[in-house]
Amino acid sequence: MAEIRLQKFLADCGLGSRRFCETLITAGRVSIDGKTVAELGTKVDPETQKVVCNGKAVAKEASVTILLNKPPKIICTSNDPQGRTTALDLLEDLPERVYTVGRLDFMSEGLIIVTNDGGLAHALMHPRHHIEKVYKVWIDKPIGYHQLQKMKRGIPNRGETLRVLDIDEGKHTRAGVEYTITLGEGKNRHIRRLMEHFDKKVFRLMRISIGPIRLDDLKPGEWRRAKPSELKLLRAAIAESKSA
């Protein structure tokens, strides 16, 4: 096997995203053949060299990708100093080490991809790969026509531009007015910040798809392994976004 960047190898082994693995390296928590390394340009040959992180040998595991329906009040981090339940806690019977790809905020729910495939995670999180994500949101009052147009054009907010690719009004129920929103590039608390801008109260926010991957009938807290056909479609969507 040819040499590869150390952070990529660590990510491929399921230790976290490449960015997180870079912090492990710069913190001096990784060694190669017994020598601590802290340079991000370091390369490693996994077939001939021994990599250790936090005192444990690191080896690439079989690739696994999980689809999880995150309930509200669950956080998308590996561990939480406050002791709250994390998305990974819901996968307690899973033998592989995995991490979440992107996040849903504490009160939001719906589809989360969890994997140890560093290449797939990197592609999904890279800003230039605009994989569409679709959400359902329930709010207290309808969005006016001109507000809808502004959302599509983009709203300046805290130094960023928040926009939607598409937004469709649905049912009016006791649970609120339902909208289906499609995002290209998602910012932190993107939809909630948009609704706050227009003085709309969010009752519920659920992600229902990431590219071709759909939540479908997964119940809150349930998970399953992604099907090969789903991963093939997802990689095709990523490839298409690269060439766009």
In terms of quaternary structure, what is this?
A: single chain
Strand composition percent: 25-35%
Average pLDDT taken over every residue: 91
CATH fold name of the largest domain, please?
Alpha-Beta Plaits
Low-confidence stretches: none
Form type: elongated
Tally of separate helices: 6
Query: Over all CA atoms, what is the radius of gyration?
Result: 20 Å
Distance between the termini: 32 Å
The CATH architecture of the largest domain? 2-Layer Sandwich
What's the CATH first level of the largest domain? Alpha Beta
CATH superfamily of the largest domain: Pseudouridine synthase I, catalytic domain, N-terminal subdomain
Strand element count: 17
Indicate how many domains the architecture comprises: 3
Structure write-up:
This protein is α+β, with helices and mostly antiparallel strands and 244 residues long. The chain folds into three domains: 4-57, Structural Genomics Hypothetical 15.5 Kd Protein In mrcA-pckA Intergenic Region, Chain A, CATH 3.10.290; 65-127 and 213-243, Pseudouridine synthase I, catalytic domain, N-terminal subdomain (Alpha-Beta Plaits), CATH 3.30.70; 133-210, Pseudouridine synthase, CATH 3.30.2350.10. It is 23% helix and 30% strand. The chain contains six helices and 17 strands. The chain has helices spanning 6-12, 18-26, 118-125, 145-153, 190-197, 228-243, and strands at 4-5, 30-32, 35-37, 43-44, 51-53, 56-57, 65-70, 99-101, 109-115, 133-139, 155-157, 160-162, 166-173, 176-183, 202-210, 213-214, 223-225. Strands 7, 8, 9, 10, 13, 14, 15, 16 and 17 form a nine-stranded mixed sheet that branches. It has a four-stranded antiparallel sheet with strand order 3-2-5-6. A hairpin with a 2-residue loop joins strand 2 (30-32) and strand 3 (35-37). Helix 1 packs across helix 2. The chain starts with a strand and ends with a helix. The model has no long low-confidence stretch (mean pLDDT 91).
